[in-house]
From TrEMBL:
Classification of source organism: Bacteria, Pseudomonadati, Pseudomonadota, Alphaproteobacteria, Rhodobacterales
Record Gene3D superfamilies: Electron Transport, Fmn-binding Protein, Chain A (2.30.110.10)
Species of the source: Roseobacter fucihabitans
Residue ranges occupied by any Flavin reductase like domain in the UniProt entry: 18-173
Protein's name in the database: Flavin reductase like domain-containing protein
UniProt cross-references to InterPro entries, sorted A to Z: Flavin_Rdtase-like_dom, Split_barrel_FMN-bd
Domain of life (superkingdom): Bacteria
SMART domains: Flavin_Reduct (SM00903)
């Protein structure tokens, strides 16, 4: 089949998210200017450069108590910092619980039964015992085509790695099985890896 998104797809569910998969999940923790913690997962997330290390995530909807966006972007606009927590398979239920659209004054760490731990370089909480966490300084918030669509870019200025994920000097994703987002309500986890050498290596 072929379809133009502007005309609709004619299927029971939108296939776009299922086509662009798997997508890593950025579990974004923020804190507003009043010190209120927030935690939410975003599957439009990725690393975008090595030097300096930078990441991005996109927010694509809004809440009535935050105007044109959701809590994460609103908080980052106020403070200029955020933390990306890596989601392991064992934390899948807590991650899912933190995705609930709650009033801005609710702390998702508490609502999801998670322990908040202080970051090192920024005034923000991170998920205690996450496999890894990236402390970020926001560099840009870019409005893109469409209502309530914002892309947040950040420079990674601090990296936390849980000791048991380091195997022979390498960050071993099979030791914690990172969660990835598929289409619809589907997820997957990384359980095995393989290597491919580039032709010019």
């Amino acid at each position: 089949m072929f379809y133009r998104p502007q005309d609709g797809h004619g299927l029971p569910h939108n296939p776009f998210n299922a086509i662009v998969t798997p997508r890593p999940i950025g579990w974004i923790s923020t804190r507003n200017a009043q010190g209120q913690n927030n935690l939410a997962p975003y599957s439009f997330f990725n690393g975008v450069s090595y030097t300096p290390p930078q990441v991005m995530f996109a927010s694509t909807s809004h809440k009535s108590d935050q105007g044109d966006t959701k809590d994460s972007v609103a908080n980052i606009r106020e403070t200029g910092v955020f933390c990306v927590n890596i989601v392991e398979y064992a934390m899948r239920d807590a991650m899912n619980a933190s995705s609930e659209m709650l009033p801005k004054e609710v702390d998702e760490f508490a609502a999801a039964g998670l322990t908040a731990q202080a970051c090192n370089q920024i005034d923000c909480a991170r998920v205690a015992n996450a496999p890894a966490a990236l402390e970020c300084r926001m560099t840009q918030v870019v409005a893109i085509e469409g209502e309530n669509n914002f892309v947040v870019f950040g420079e990674v200025i601090g990296v936390h790695i849980r000791d048991d994920t380091l195997v022979e000097g390498r960050f071993d994703v099979t030791s914690f099985q990172p969660l990835s987002r598929l289409g619809y309500r589907d997820y997957t986890r990384v359980t095995e890896v393989f290597e491919l050498a580039r032709p010019d290596d």
